């Protein structure tokens, strides 16, 4: 019983310390853009989408880089009543893009357009959420 009382007293004491340590924060009208950008989930999500679309740019240059692939291993098997056998296997492959009928250039233009569209959407989301925050302020 004493342990339960001590535990309850400890919890209440730590809650009082935590609540007294949290001081009110003065917010100004100029702080709203920073707060909306850092704390609003819609704005953060739109910024992440814009960043990921920007990372996908550069497809045209990467499409002309040679691709190399190597694979190897060993297999162990038994066929019917014959003894167990082990055989190694391996392969190597090299590819190079010479020309794909302009498909690479179209893909790059599409990715640039998508990147610009997601950046515009991120700006729109920030403006919309900032407008709501300013109305509530």
List keywords for this structure.
137 residues; alpha+beta; elongated
Walk me through what this model shows.
The chain has helices spanning 2-21, 32-39, 41-55, 59-63, 103-136; strands at residues 67-77, 85-95. Helices cover 60% and strands 16% of the residues. With 137 residues, the protein is of the alpha+beta class. The chain is elongated and about 85 Å long. Strands 1-2 form a two-stranded antiparallel sheet.
Order of helices and strands: HHHHEEH
- The average pLDDT value, as a whole number, equals 82
**Anisotropy-based shape:** elongated
Which structural category do the helix and sheet elements fall into?
alpha+beta
- Low-pLDDT segments, ≥5 res: none
Radius of gyration, taken over Cα atoms and rounded to an integer in Å: 30 Å
Span between termini: 50 Å
Beta content comes to: 15-25%
Strand order of the largest sheet: 1-2
Number of strands: 2
- Main beta sheet: 2 strands, antiparallel
Count of DSSP-assigned helices = 5
The portion of residues assigned to helices is: 55-70%
Secondary structure elements and pairings:
Layout: H1 2-21, H2 32-39, H3 41-55, H4 59-63, E1 67-77, E2 85-95, H5 103-136
Antiparallel strand pairs: 1-2
Helix pairs in contact: 2-5, 3-5
What is this entry, summarized?
With about 140 residues, the protein is α+β, with helices and mostly antiparallel strands. Helices cover about 60% and strands about 15% of the residues. The radius of gyration is 30 Å and the shape is elongated.
């Amino acid at each position: 019983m004493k342990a339960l009382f001590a535990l309850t007293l400890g919890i209440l004491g730590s809650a009082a310390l935590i609540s007294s340590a949290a001081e009110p924060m003065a917010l100004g009208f100029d702080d709203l853009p920073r707060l909306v950008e850092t704390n609003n989930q819609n704005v953060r999500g739109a910024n992440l989408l814009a960043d990921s679309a920007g990372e996908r740019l550069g497809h045209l240059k990467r499409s002309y880089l040679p691709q190399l692939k190597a694979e190897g291993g060993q297999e162990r098997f038994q066929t019917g009543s014959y003894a167990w056998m082990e055989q190694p296997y391996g392969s190597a492959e090299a590819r190079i893009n010479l020309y794909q009928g302009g498909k690479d250039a179209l893909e790059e233009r599409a990715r640039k357009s998508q990147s610009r569209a997601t950046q515009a959407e991120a700006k729109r989301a920030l403006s919309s959420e900032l407008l709501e925050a300013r109305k509530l302020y």
